[in-house]
Amino acid sequence: xxxxxxxxxxxxxxxxxxxxxxxxxPKAKKAVDAIAGFHGVNKNQVLPVVNYTDEExxxxxxxxxxxxxxxxxYQLIEGYLTHHxxxxxxxxxxxxxxxxxxxxxxxxxxxxxxxxxxxxxxxRNLRILLVGPVDSGKSSFIDSVQxxxxxxxxxxxxxxxxxxxxxxxxxTTEKFKLFPVDxxxxxxxxxxxxxxxxxxxxGFQEQDGIKEDHVKFIISGNVxxxxxxINGIQDTQDDFQRNPLPGDKIHCVCFVFDCEKVQKGxxxxxxxxxxxxxxxxxxxxxxxxxxxxxxxxxxxxxxxGRRRIFDDGNVRGCKDRLMTEFYFKQQxxxxxxNYDDQNDVDxxxxxLILAAFFKILELGKNHMERADGQV
Length: 375
Ligand SMILES: Nc1nc2c(ncn2[C@@H]2O[C@H](COP(=O)(O)OP(=O)(O)OP(=O)(O)O)[C@@H](O)[C@H]2O)c(=O)[nH]1
Ligand SMILES: [Mg+2]
Description:
39% of the residues lie in helices and 13% in strands. The protein is α/β, with parallel strands linked by helices. The protein folds into 2 domains: 3-83, no CATH class; 95-371, P-loop containing nucleotide triphosphate hydrolases (Rossmann fold, 3-Layer(aba) Sandwich), CATH 3.40.50.300. Strands 6-4-5-3-7-8-9 form a 7-stranded mixed sheet, sandwiched between helices. Helix 6 (138-150) crosses helix 12 and helix 7 runs parallel beside helix 9 (268-283). It starts with a strand and ends with a helix. The mean pLDDT is 90.
């Protein structure tokens, strides 16, 4: 442990002229002793600094103290690691994910890439399901994928209305609804319908609403399109598909979590539901990924730009929390920002959304082929 002790210029104003004054000052020495005593650490673990506040230029004395503190921290870590050779630091690869995002230099290249990824599904039905807590951005993701594919803002799935009660939210989506995925045909420039369907569901809420069993019925293909599930699903109901066809089943599930809520922490009931859901999906052998939405809400730099999302400390913190709380793997987590109230699509938002969407297609296709006995 170290203690960073700030505002030493208040005890020793001459420090700005020469940092050596600090080490001669009896007042500063007394303060270091008191801080060390208070925290029960050695005096050399108390690191005096003077922070930059409103200066426009760098000051040697402040720089020296900050670097001295950093150097001391480095020495302590190095010493600790020498005595604990079993601890190894392996880069976790999160930052490298930025380089793995899809790239294109112009609209033609983007169109070629989309055709390459989507034409294999022109005559194959692929069903993708979005699940997660209420208000997490499930419907917005469906719209965001459509917007990125058409290079035009689309809002078919999400419903715009101001929520009046931020606590105890009820889902705005009430039905299980399949949205066909369209993309621009490279030859004709017209919209082309793929066999991909994005399935929207109501969000998990504190009370009532969708439950894990309902999702299980949907994954198994028992629930027809546009089924109102906010009131529950009974296998005795007329439209319940008792003998679903293979094409009615779900091929990939996307868990959707909102960064802001991850940061605040979920209630026990949502945590339990998400864990049960995850367990059930694994038991069903259905692949899944995690969409971490609303990254713009936890980061000032992401509010205005979408670059370097993998460098953002708050987004990383949310990703880490999902990994420790739900045991998701890092590779399964895709940070995104949905199109919310933008007038137009932009390349950096598209790249994040399409990275997640392409992964979903890959997982879904593999699952479909395994189910068909092709591999
Ligand atoms: N800033 C920001 N807002 C978002 C993002 N994604 C969704 N939203 C907003 O969050 C709210 C909820 O989004 P929805 O897509 O309706 O969420 P949902 O999960 O479908 O909600 P339910 O169907 O009610 O469970 C809407 O007001 C969206 O505009 C995002 O990435 N960033
Ligand atoms: Mg919704």
